[in-house]
Structures are given as structure tokens and as C-alpha cells.
Amino acid sequence: MQRFQLKPLIFGLLVPGLLVVAGLGLPVSRCSAADASKPEANAAKPALTVTLTQAKSAMAPVKLAANGNVVAWQEALIGAEVNGLRVLELKADVGDTVKAGQLLATFSAEAVLADVALARAALSEATANAAEASANAERARAVQGSGALSTQQIGQYLTQELTGRARVESAKAQLDAQLLRQKHTQVLAPDSGIISNRNATLGAVMGAGTEMFRLIRQARLEWRAELTSAELGRVTPGTGVLVTSPSGAQLKGRVRTVAPTVDALTRNGLVYVDLLGPPAGAKSVAGAFKPGMFARGEFDLGSSSALTVVQSAVLVRDGFSYVMRVGADNRVSQLKVQTGRTLGEQVEILTGLTAQDRLVASGASFLSEGDVVRVVEASKPNRAVAPASQAQAAPK
After folding, report:
1. Which structural domains are found in the chain, ordered by start?
2. pLDDT 10s per residue in the chain (396 long)?
3. How far are the Cα atoms of 20, 138, 148, 196, 214 from residue 98, in angstroms, in the given order?
């Protein structure tokens, strides 16, 4: 009786336990099978498709930039050389190109011509008196010692002869002075160049030494660059320079000399650069470059070896320059670099990079530290990789 009652109880406890164990084991086996069938689920997806580049060595020109002013090489001050004469005619104005000896202005010459006539008359009188004194002296010499004339009279005739000659020389000098005044009634250009200033006014009475014109000699200009004390030693006479005006016109130059002193306040020194020839499209140097103009320039100091990369590989973040290096596992790491000279589409890398590093050629601004990239040939453009879900959802 007791054994018959225990069997249903044991059976009722075993059946539910087996069902629970079976239910727990079934999902575990399914998950393991799914994970085993998809091993790529844990792999990182590429953030960007990129092309690679590497730094290369190249010979780069060494330039030294500077600022300065354009001034006249030399200026000639042309003034009046006669006093109290009226300006009769002006033949030149500001901006005119003149040649040496060209007539610039004339003064009224009536008073000077009258003085010349008086000087000629005085010379004629002195010449006549000298001739008479010379004749008397000859007669006195002829009778000297005969007692016809006293010794005193003979001495007077000889002295009058010498005095007559001296008066002739004085009259000639006065005539030469008046002829020189007559010559100075015409103002001539002392050298070829360009008139940069005119102070003369028609009809004005000019005093001797008053400035009438200012001339840029030979139309030559120079650029006076300011360099620091440390930079002055890098520049020598004969160094080539490329000077750029505010309008963008460029002109080649050559260092003529370096100032022997440095300003005690600014610690800067001057470098004198001759501007060579007019730029393209200009008739003269002064056409595109004018005295008093500010200009910038670059001194050509030769060339040196440089490690360069394409500009698109360098990105600027927070005021610093970086490149993205691609590792063997196609993960990128951000490298801080120091840039130098710009050479067309290349930029010099001073520190932080070696020639063996593989770099992202472009699109580095879309990447972050540790991102995975897909590397393609350089001929293919950079493009972002579409997520797998978007590719599957695209309409067919």
C-alpha cells in the first residue's frame, strides 16, 4: 500500500526538473552557434577610405623675408644760382623724365645782359689804357740812360704798364662773371632722371640757392630693408632679392651694401638693395615702385635639404600642426609636427616625422586617434565608407 503511493510522487518531481534543465540549455547552445558563425561581428569598421603618402627629401631654397621702404637712390636738388631774377619760363613739371643738360627753366635776362655789356665796355677801356701805358713804357726803355727822361718818369711809365695789364685782367674777370650770370639764367638738368618735386613758380623772383626742382637721378630707386642684428650677418653684398610692392608688382634687386651700424633703440640695421630694371608692363622702375612706398621682399640665401610632405597631409588643430600616421593594423595615430618653409604644394617638416612613416594623404581632419582606415590606391578619391546597415537598406 505504501510503495504504490510513492511512485507517483517521485515521477511528479522528476518530470518538471528535466523540463527546466532542457529549457535552460537550449538558448545557450543557439547563442554559441550564432557567435561561431559570425566572427567578424567584433571587428572594427573603417572610418574612412584614404590614400597614403610619405615624406621625401628635397632641396629647398632658403629665403629671408624683410620689410622696408622704397627710396630714391640719389636725389639732385636743382636751385637758382642767380639772385633777384624773375622766373620767365618753366619747361619741366613733376613726373617728367629729363636728360642731362635739358632746359628746365629760364630767368628774365635783361638786367644780366646789361651788366654783360658794361663789362665788355670796361674791358675795352682797360685794354686801350693798357696799350697806351705799354707804348709809353717802351719809349721810356728806349731813352733810358740817355738823360732824356728822369729815372722817376721812367719808373712811372713802367709802373703804368703793369697797372694797365692788371686792369685788363680785372675787366676780363668781371666780364666772365657776368657771362656766367647770363648762363645761369637757364636752369639745366645736371643728370638724367625723373622730376620728383617742383617749387618754382612762374613770375617769382628767386633768391640764389632757392630749390626749384628735385630730381631722382637716373630714375634709380632702392629698397632699404630692415633686418635684426642676427639677420644682418646672413646677407652680403651681391645677394639677390625679390621685392614685392603693395600692388603686387615684383622686381628683382641686388644688395649693394649693408649698413655698418645698428639702431640703438630698435636693434635693427638697414640693407640697401638696388632695384634692377622696371617690372613687366612698366616703363620705368618708378612706374610701379615709388619713393616712400612700403614694400616687402625676400633675400635668396641659397638652398638646403628639407623633409617635405604634401600640404593636404598636414592639419592644424588648436594652433598646432599634426599629421595622421597609419600603422600596420591600419589604425591612425596623431603626430605633432613642426612645419617650416612652404614649397608649392609641399610643406617642410622640421621635427616629429621620419621618412618611413606612412601618412594619410588627405582627409586627416575627419579622423581621430585610434580610428581604423581602409587604404586604397592613390588614384582613387577619398570617400567615407557607408555603414553596412545603410548599404543593405539601399533600394535595388
Report:
1. 44-73+220-385 (2.40.30.170), 83-106+186-219 (2.40.50.100), 109-184 (1.10.287)
2. 444 444 444 445 454 554 444 444 444 334 444 444 444 444 578 888 888 998 888 888 888 999 999 999 999 999 999 888 999 999 999 999 999 999 999 999 999 999 999 999 999 999 999 999 999 888 888 888 787 778 888 888 889 999 999 999 999 999 999 999 999 999 999 999 999 999 999 999 988 889 999 999 998 999 999 999 999 999 999 999 999 998 888 999 999 999 999 999 999 999 999 998 766 556 666 667 889 999 999 999 988 888 999 988 999 988 899 999 998 888 899 999 999 888 888 898 998 888 888 999 888 888 888 888 888 875 444 444 444 434 333 443
3. 117, 58, 71, 11, 12
What does the alpha-carbon distance between residue 93 and residue 108 come to, in Å, rounded to a whole number?
19
Q: What is the dihedral of CA 80, 82, 85, 90, to 10 degrees?
A: -30
